[in-house]
What does this fold into?
Amino acid sequence: QKEVEQDPGPLSVPEGAIVSLNCTYSNSAFQYFMWYRQYSRKGPELLMYTYSSGNKEDGRFTAQVDKSSKYISLFIRDSQPSDSATYLCAMSPRLNNDMRFGAGTRLTVKP
Amino acid sequence: DVKVTQSSRYLVKRTGEKVFLECVQDMDHENMFWYRQDPGLGLRLIYFSYDVKMKEKGDIPEGYSVSREKKERFSLILESASTNQTSMYLCASSPPGRGEQYFGPGTRLTVT
It folds into this structure.
């Protein structure tokens, strides 16, 4: 079993839809949780960074962490075609070390 | 904004060649990382460095070495390239006391 599981998709939604992306994990020591967006042939770009459980909102993006269920989510409201990308979850037990990534979910937002 | 640059976007090398991939960051970050990214496998850590001249093995260090002579520069070396090292290579850096990493644009390496 992988430490971090992420549905690879692909996921296709119409413009304006609410998108839900999820990851589950097995290591209860994870405390730092991140979501990255990666456009085709580019490096990952940090979207959201949260510590421990709870919610964090930034514009159209909301990250949720449920440590009791070992489950994290990224919600995208009013999705746009420019949101079409691969989304990677990442998590680590300590600062700057042992970061584990999901395999990524490929999202397409259709106009 | 943090800027992480990598020396090449695309590289084609022959089996057995020695390959150098360079990464430079401009934010005075102490921590730097090298990953490879393969379809279905996600990102896997090859090596990381906490400071100049310091290095630590990641999950898949075999066939690779690294060099960090200056704080802003972290080099990945493939001593003798093999076809199974064909991959996307990503460099990242992170500031002290923070958990997030900032990535470069990646180098797509093909070994024939």
Q: What stands out?
A: Residues 94 and 105 of chain B are 15 Å apart (CA to CA). The two ends of chain B are 37 Å apart (CA to CA). Chain B touches chain A through 23 residues (CB under 8 Å).
